[in-house]
Amino acid sequence: MLRLSVITDEIAQDLSHALAVMREYGLTEAELRNVYGKYIVDADEELLVRVEQDLAAAGFTVPCIDTPLYKCALGGAEEATGATHNAQERTLADQLPLLEKSIALAKRFNAPYIRIFAFWKRGPLTPQIEDQIAEALAPACKVAEAAGVTLLLENEHACYLGTGAETARMVARLNSPALKMLWDPGNALCAGELPFPDGWEAAKPYTAHIHIKDAKQLEGNQQQWVVVGEGDINYTGQFEALKTSGYSGVIALETHYKHPDGPEASSRPCLEGMIKLCR
C-alpha cells in the first residue's frame, strides 16, 4: 500500500488523540502543523517535549514539518494576511530566521522535509513576479543545502504559485538539490488547473510529497470541499498513476471538508476514501 499520513490537526489539536485515530487505520507517519493549539514553529520547549513523548508512545515518525514559510507579502513591508492556520504573522524579513528554526525542528523530529510557500497572491503572476520569487527563495535553498534538509514548495492557490505547472516551473528554475515539490491537487483545482492529468504531469518530475483534499466546482470559480473521492478531482486516475509510477513518498490527508460534528468526523470518511483509492 502507498504510504499514508494525516496532518494531525485535521483530526484533533490533541496530538495523542489524533495519533490514536490514525493508528486505527494502520498509519505510522504523522505530519505536524498545529499541536495543542499551537503552530509547531511557535511551540515552546515544554510543548515540543510533549510532542516527542506522544510520538514515541504511539510509535510514529514525522515525514514533514508543515511551516508557514514564505506565506507572507513578497514586497516585505506588508504584514502577512491570509490563512496561516494559527501561525504568527511574519514579514519577508522574518523568513530566514524562521527557516533556521524550522530546520532545527526537522532535525529534532528526524523529518526529511520542510513545507514552504510562494508568497500571498496580490495580482496576476507575471514574469517579473516570478523573477522576484526566485530571487527571494534562492537564499533559502542555499541554507537548506548547507543544513542537509529538503524544502517542499507547495502549490497553493492563495499564493502566486497555485498550479502544478507554475510550481514545477519554479522548482526547475531554482534547480537546487534541496528543493522539491509538494503536490496538492485540491489547491490546483482552486487555482483553475485540471489537477489530473494536467497538473500532475507537470508536477510529477519534482514531487516528493502529496497533500490530499477533494472538492466540487461551483459557479463563479468557487469550490465546495467534500469527502475525498466524492469531488471533481480524478483521484482514481491520480492514485493509479502514483502506483504505476512507483511513487514512494507520503500521501497526507489535509481534509478541508467540514462535517457538522467537527474535525475528526470530517477526517475519518476522508481517510477511508483515501484507503479505498489505494486499494
Structure in words:
This protein is globular. The chain contains 9 helices and 12 strands. It has helices at residues 15-24, 45-58, 95-108, 127-147, 164-174, 185-190, 195-203, 235-245, 263-278, and strands spanning 3-7, 30-31, 34-35, 38-39, 64-69, 113-116, 150-154, 179-183, 207-212, 214-218, 222-226, 250-253. With 279 residues, the protein is α/β, with parallel strands linked by helices. The mean pLDDT is 95. It is 40% helix and 18% strand. It has an 8-stranded parallel beta sheet with strand order 2-1-12-9-8-7-6-5, covered by helices on one side. It has a two-stranded antiparallel ribbon with strand order 3-4.
Instruction: Give helix and strand order, one letter per element, not per position.
Output: EHEEEHEHEHEHEHHEEEHEH
Which parts are unreliable, with pLDDT below 50 for 5 consecutive residues or more? none
Beta-strand fraction estimate: 15-25%
Fraction of residues in H or I helices? 40-55%
Q: How many helical elements?
A: 9
Overall outline: globular
Structural class by sheet pairing and helices = alpha/beta
Radius of gyration: 18 Å
- Largest sheet properties: 8 strands, parallel
Average pLDDT metric = 95
Strand order, biggest sheet? 2-1-12-9-8-7-6-5
Total beta strand runs: 12
Distance between the termini: 7 Å
